[in-house]
Design goal:
This protein has 369 residues and is α/β, with parallel strands linked by helices. The chain has 2 domains: 2-172, 3-Layer(aba) Sandwich (Rossmann fold); 176-366, Up-down Bundle (Dehydroquinate synthase-like, alpha domain), CATH 1.20.1090.10. It has helices at 25-28, 31-34, 44-59, 79-92, 106-118, 132-138, 176-193, 195-209, 213-233, 249-258, 267-284, 290-302, 314-326, 351-361, and strands at residues 2-6, 13-18, 38-43, 65-70, 99-104, 125-129, 143-148, 151-158, 163-167, 333-339, 342-347. The structure holds nicotinamide-adenine-dinucleotide (NAD) and zinc ion (ZN).
Length: 369
């Protein structure tokens, strides 16, 4: 088992990564926290796989353990679900301040964390991420939110959990597509910060995707350490440091938005295409060598992630990119790789270059010109 400390003064917390460690929750969370009324927020599937057993374990520590079962998928990141969590907290927390345990993927983590950040102006919560993406990314760093019809993650806050417990055993039941989803973020970490992680991925990809115990624990720990270091430098995403985590995401979000966040592309798949587009853009700007771009593409392909977008509506992607621009002070901003392990922020990329990179990636029938 590994332990990583995320240092943020009074908001510091440990991240535990290991195989079959959920049962040991009492070793990782300070006993007084576990003596409070506990609300486990999860979905039906994860409740059946893990939640019920966890509730039983917690009942041996405290008398008051409750579960709020939220819908599966992005639908749960809504004000309706948020209201239900708040109502449940109000019921169980009349006398004592309750503790939330977010048991699930990024969706559960985001909505449960947002409820924790606002109920009584903030109550403690623990992240128990159950997807690969959540273990390497969303459970760490305190960004919590719900969606509104106009845009994803539009209402949220920064609110750090008390502890993150990443049990790699729970990943065994994840569908392959969710493993690939997490792999896109893992490859992202290698490109933005860690050439040795990238090499490790190139060498051990099969073991990692097959969830070989030593490989997966190593990779999640390396990624968690990178995310923790970035968050420590820029907790509130104002210094530009946290922005490097958006490598592949500007294009990725635009692709997801162009499909109205349907299942056509998962977040990871859209980010994979986005990382290819950003790498091609960097190549055209003369910021990176071709051999490095080839390595990035080759690894994504080996991870069964898409390099190109099929049947994407060019105009809709451009519209979404412009929407993004409006929220970043009127300039476009891309995280572009310089070499594997290093990225830089580039602003005001000429419009024609964005269009060229996009149109080269898309199938001819979707091209604007
Ligand atoms: N807060 C952040 O910093 C941050 C960062 C990245 C992404 N996110 C958010 O995370 C969300 C995506 O998270 P996700 O990719 O984890 O998706 P998700 O939470 O929707 O989970 C994906 C699917 O896997 C299932 N699942 C979860 N754990 C399982 C398990 N152990 N076995 C079998 N099935 C399991 C879920 O029921 C769901 O169907 C998005 O809403 C995104 O905005 C947040
Ligand atoms: Zn992402």
């Amino acid at each position: 088992m590994r332990k990583i400390n995320l240092r943020l003064g009074s908001r510091s917390y440990p991240i535990y990564i290991g195989h079959d460690i959920i049962d040991r929750i009492a070793d990782f969370v300070k006993p007084p926290l576990l003596k409070r009324p506990i609300l486990i927020v999860t979905n039906k599937k994860i409740n059946a796989l893990i939640g019920r057993k966890l509730a039983k374990r917690l009942l041996s520590i405290t008398a008051s353990v409750h579960t709020e079962v939220v819908p599966d998928s992005e639908r749960a990141k809504s004000f309706g679900v948020y209201n239900r969590i708040i109502a449940h907290l109000s019921k169980i927390g009349r006398k004592e301040i309750p503790l939330i345990i977010a048991l699930g993927g990024g969706v559960v983590g985001d909505v449960a964390g947002f409820a924790a950040s606002t109920y009584r102006r903030g109550i403690p919560y623990i992240q128990l991420p159950t997807t690969l993406l959540a273990q390497v990314d969303s459970s760490i760093g305190g960004k919590v939110a719900v969606d509104i019809p106009q845009a994803k993650n539009m209402v949220g806050s920064f609110y750090q959990p008390r502890t993150v417990i990443s049990d790699t055993k729970v990943l065994k039941t994840l569908p392959d597509r969710e493993i690939r989803n997490g792999m896109a973020e893992i490859i992202k970490y290698g490109v933005i910060r860690d050439a040795s992680l990238f090499k490790y991925l190139e060498k051990n990809l099969k073991g990692i995707m097959g969830l070989k115990r030593a490989c997966i624990e190593t990779v999640i720990s390396k990624c968690a350490r990178i995310k923790a270091a970035v968050v420590e430098k820029d907790e509130f995403d104002v210094k530009g440091e946290r922005a490097i985590l958006n490598f592949g995401h500007t294009f990725g979000h635009a692709i997801e938005a162009s499909f109205k966040y349907s299942k056509k592309y998962t977040h990871g798949e859209a980010v994979s295409i986005g990382m290819v587009l950003a790498s091609e853009m960097s190549l055209k700007l003369g910021l990176i060598n071709k051999s490095e771009v080839i390595r990035i593409k080759r690894l994504l392909k080996r991870a069964h992630l898409p390099l190109k977008a099929k049947r994407i509506n060019f105009k809709k992607v451009l519209y979404a990119l412009n929407f993004d621009k409006k929220f970043s002070g009127g300039t476009n901003r891309f995280v572009l790789p310089r070499k594997i392990g290093q990225v830089g922020l580039v602003e005001d990329v000429p419009e024609f270059l964005i269009e060229t990179v996009l149109s080269e990636s898309l199938y001819p029938q979707n091209m604007l010109f």
